[in-house]
Amino acid sequence: MVNGELDLSSGVPLYRQIKDLLRTEISGGNADPQRPMTEAQLLDRFDVSRAPIRQALKELTDEGYVYRRQGKGTFPVPGVRVDRPADVRPGALHQHLVDSGLHPTSAVSGIERVEPPARIRDRLGVEGHERLLHFTRVISVEDEPLVEADVYVRAPEDFAPTAAALEDQGSAFELLEKGFGITLDRAEHEAWAAPATTEHAAVLGVESGSPVLVIDTVFFTVGGFPAGWRSAVHRAEEFRYRFVTSG
């Protein structure tokens, strides 16, 4: 390959190519966490100026893929790091992971129509004996479990996606929009740290009682109709949620 691992004819900025290559190596466990990534080493490897090297390392540091030790250098952080920006639209986390080059997969189970628990019914304004589509989804990135989500969707009775369809699409709301024209407009989130239950620890591959990030979300369609609820439990050390406030 020309110029080592870089493609000078691709039009992609050099710093971005370097960043993507290093991120893939770190996420895949191919970078030694005990060996620093020095500018000299990377200059020799990629045969470029210092500017793209420094920009790549800065962005990798900002995103949690590397960290700097005073007087020691820049070291890889093993494992997958997922950064969710504030502008990811509701229900589109799976597509964001795809767009980020992280190769997500999901496993869906327990698809059923049920009357939701009282706290979810109250939050969504469900009355009477309305039944919601319910299922559990586990999202993995680079074959490592990241999120376990418990999902309830208010949808027409004839909306009955299979597990395969939900796994392929990555979002029940994307399927709902394609099939019924029901579009999400916004979402409200509540997030907190909690100890992993035995069940969540088993699914996410962490120790029982270790910290996890819990995010409960209510989804709203255009017009403000509450369309669904999700409680997502994340491996806390590998997920960063970015948000924006205004006033």
From TrEMBL:
Superkingdom in the source lineage: Bacteria
Q: InterPro entries attached here? A: Bact_HTH_transcr_reg, Chorismate_lyase_/UTRA_dom_sf, Tscrpt_reg_HTH_GntR, UTRA, WH-like_DNA-bd_sf, WH_DNA-bd_sf
Q: Which SMART domains match?
A: HTH_GNTR, UTRA
Q: Does the keyword Transcription regulation apply?
A: yes
Q: Which CDD domains match?
A: WHTH_GntR (cd07377)
Question: Which PANTHER family does the entry link to?
Answer: MANNOSYL-D-GLYCERATE TRANSPORT/METABOLISM SYSTEM REPRESSOR MNGR-RELATED (PTHR44846), MANNOSYL-D-GLYCERATE TRANSPORT_METABOLISM SYSTEM REPRESSOR MNGR-RELATED (PTHR44846:SF1)
Ranges where the HTH gntR-type domain occurs: 12-79
Keyword vocabulary terms for this entry: DNA-binding, Transcription, Transcription regulation
Its name, as the record gives it, is GntR family transcriptional regulator
Protein's UniProt keywords contain DNA-binding? yes
A molecular function (GO) held by this record is:
DNA-binding transcription factor activity
One biological process term in Gene Ontology: negative regulation of DNA-templated transcription
* Species this chain originates from: Nocardiopsis kunsanensis
